[in-house]
Design a protein that fits this description.
single chain, alpha+beta, Aminopeptidase, Four Helix Bundle (Hemerythrin (Met), subunit A), eight-stranded mixed sheet, two-stranded antiparallel sheet, 10 strands
Length: 364
């Protein structure tokens, strides 16, 4: 099917679908489907229920990045008969929050036989072996009782409700890695910020003062300026966030993760994530200086990250969705604390990515 990866269960073999197999499934070409997958498909050779609209998008994504095929659609095939039972898959590779979304659809002839639960359980276990994945999430319309029962039998737990822009109200189920914090929680943000701290330390330890301040040919920021900007902006946000946490603690504004970042928060976090799609002039108060000492800069960024991690831990138990701040850097931008923590992490990844590209340009 693709790359030889197969997950086996008592009755099934489950493997990622290649772009060619997805194209054959879209076309209803049974001969090509069998050639690509080794499975037999009941006539007509059509996708399982509810998947037809998604297939062209998934095919194009897999075609553009074949290595990511396991994070899209898998075909479940009955062992022995080699009959295609259904399709189960993810909504793409894990994001910065460590969450992958999962969906499943079984051909009518194979429904009510436990295949969906068997396949879902196996794919959840496979995904949670990846160190980037903290949770597998399914969003199911409230009226889809069979799908909800499948999620529950596979070990996913009801964690809340949400609104999907395409289908409306949904019930959210998750299976979380026992050793990893809940995505969107204060503990998860603390872990994320600590990982960024380690990445920055590895980046900076290869530099001396001269290379730190070497600007690229295009006149952009040096590595030192990128990191100096992160320290200045991080410190600016940190004080504002600590004030919100103190108020939330005093007022007992507590909640259980995961927390929604809100529409504006989601938009702002996506805007900050690398690769940079839009470029902005930094506000004067967080513009970097031109000259730096590598030892002082490393210590300054490490100290910032330690304070951010400690602040995230102090926020544990509080409702990060209800506690909000006005951005100290962007006028009229209001973010809840879930969005603020995520935006800081995304902003740091953005400029560390920029710093790596500068190092490549100057030959460090």
């Amino acid at each position: 099917m693709t790359s030889g990866l197969v997950v086996r269960t008592a009755r099934l073999e489950i493997a990622p679908l290649s772009a060619a197999a997805l194209d054959a499934l879209i076309a209803g070409d049974g001969q090509r489907l069998t050639a690509c997958t080794g499975a037999s498909f009941a006539a007509p050779d059509a996708p399982p229920p509810l998947l037809a609209d998604a297939l062209p998008i998934v095919r194009d994504r897999v075609g553009a990045s074949p290595d990511d095929a396991p994070w899209w659609m898998w075909l479940a095939v009955e062992r022995g008969s080699h009959a295609a039972v259904g399709v189960i898959g993810f909504g793409g590779p894990p994001g910065p929050d460590g969450v992958v979304t999962v969906g499943y659809a079984i051909y009518p002839a194979f429904q009510r036989r436990g295949f969906a639960t068997e396949a879902l359980s196996a794919l959840c276990a496979w995904a949670l072996e990846d160190p980037r994945v903290r949770a597998v999430r399914a969003t199911i319309p409230p009226a889809h009782d069979a799908s909800r029962r499948t999620a529950e039998r596979a070990g996913l737990r009801h964690v809340g409700e949400d609104v999907d822009p395409e289908v409306g109200d949904v019930v959210v189920y998750e299976l979380r890695h026992a050793g990893r914090p809940i995505p969107g929680s204060a503990a998860a943000y603390a872990e994320e910020l600590a990982e960024i701290s380690h990445a920055a330390e590895e980046l900076l330890q290869a530099l001396d003062d001269a290379s730190l301040d070497s600007a690229p040919a295009d006149g952009g920021w040096s590595v030192g300026e990128c990191v100096d900007h992160l320290i200045r902006s991080g410190r600016l946000y940190l004080g504002t966030m600590q004030g919100a946490i103190a108020r939330g603690t005093a007022r007992g504004i507590r909640g259980t993760p995961p927390f929604s970042r809100g529409i504006v928060g989601d938009w702002f976090v996506r805007l900050m994530e690398p690769p940079a799609r839009r470029h902005f002039r930094a506000p004067r108060k967080i513009r970097p200086t031109r000259h730096h000492a590598v030892g002082a800069l490393r210590a300054g960024f490490a100290a910032l990250q330690a304070d951010l991690v400690a602040t995230a831990h102090r926020a544990e138990g509080l409702d990060l969705g209800r506690l909000a701040i006005w951005s100290p850097a962007v006028p009229l931008l209001r973010l809840n604390l879930a969005a603020a923590f995520a935006a800081i992490a995304a902003h740091e990844r953005r400029h560390l990515d920029q710093a790596r590209r500068v190092m490549e340009q100057i030959g460090t």
